[in-house]
Amino acid sequence: MNPRPGSVTPGIMNETTASASFHVAALYRFCRLERFEELRAPLAAFCCGRGIKGTLLLAREGVNGTVAGTAAAISELVDYLDSQPELAGLDVKYSQAAEMPFHRMKVRLKREIVTMGVDGVDPLESVGAYVAPDEWNELISDPDTIVIDTRNDYEVALGTFKGAVDPRTATFREFPEWVEEHKGDLENRKIAMFCTGGIRCEKATAFVKSLGFDEVFHLKGGILKYLEEVPARESLWEGECFVFDERVSVTHGLEEGEAELCRACRRPLTPAERASSKFVAGISCDYCHDSRTDEDRVRYAERQRQIELTAKRGRRHIGS
């Protein structure tokens, strides 16, 4: 069982409260969840009634998502999910945020809880061997190991493990095609894969094993668990880890990083990238400047003006 966040006085904190400390839970579970549709309404009501915000995905293959709230609310949610027979044994990673990192609560029904788009890939049937964070360095330092980052290109650009292969995929749907094209590079190698929280690489290892590869491994708990448990002085991680919320990135100890989003194209930007002459807060960056029209920039500028006005009033604009 994963340790629960520390206890606090129950209650719903307003997202504009400067002193608020929010607990963030990244969770998933592959299982046979035939009744996923009927869980949507009660799960949404449970979260909204406790001030929890974020996104949860429900599908026949399980649950996946990241949510934030008070420590008490998040603990209650994990207990609630664990009480569902199919979902017992959730994989949960906890971290904190100084401000509420989500704008609203969404519970969505999906065909897959992590979209690969390949029929028949089932992590419940066959999956790579789990490697604990404290054993990961030894595996990826082995010259017989090929280390593959299963995340998308914009995530990899912000940080990855030393020596890891970047498939340069824009979405996870492109990953199977990349593997098929590089099967020769994987022959007679140990294949070690990783992702943010562990869910993508579970499915990635299941796919790779379906192609006949045997020595397939993945980082248990993903990058988040590695950054939580492995001291920075021993780490082989380079850069920051992108997260899908308003914190944008985290570093060792799951501290909030320095990356910020370009609000025009949603690309995470390092401080060096924000120093570019093409970066204008809320309007453009190096990645999107030349692909946006003057009309786009006028619209973005007005949105940014509204965000700044709202911030001066001590509130957060919904489009920030």
Automatic annotation (TrEMBL):
Catalytic reaction(s) noted: uridine(34) in tRNA + AH2 + O2 = 5-hydroxyuridine(34) in tRNA + A + H2O
Q: Which residues form the Rhodanese domain?
A: 141-235
Protein name (Swiss-Prot/TrEMBL): tRNA uridine(34) hydroxylase
Pfam families of this UniProt entry? Answer: Rhodanese (PF00581), UPF0176_N (PF17773)
Q: Which UniProt keywords apply?
A: Oxidoreductase, tRNA processing
Q: Which family does it belong to?
A: Belongs to the TrhO family.
Q: What does this protein do?
A: Catalyzes oxygen-dependent 5-hydroxyuridine (ho5U) modification at position 34 in tRNAs.
Q: Entry's SMART domains?
A: RHOD
Query: What domain of life does the native source organism fall in?
Result: Bacteria
Q: Which NCBIfam families match?
A: PRK00142.1-4 (NF001136)
Q: What is its EC number?
A: 1.14.-.-
| CDD domains for the chain | RHOD_YceA (cd01518)
Q: Which InterPro entries match?
A: Rhodanese-like_dom, Rhodanese-like_dom_sf, TrhO, TRHO_N
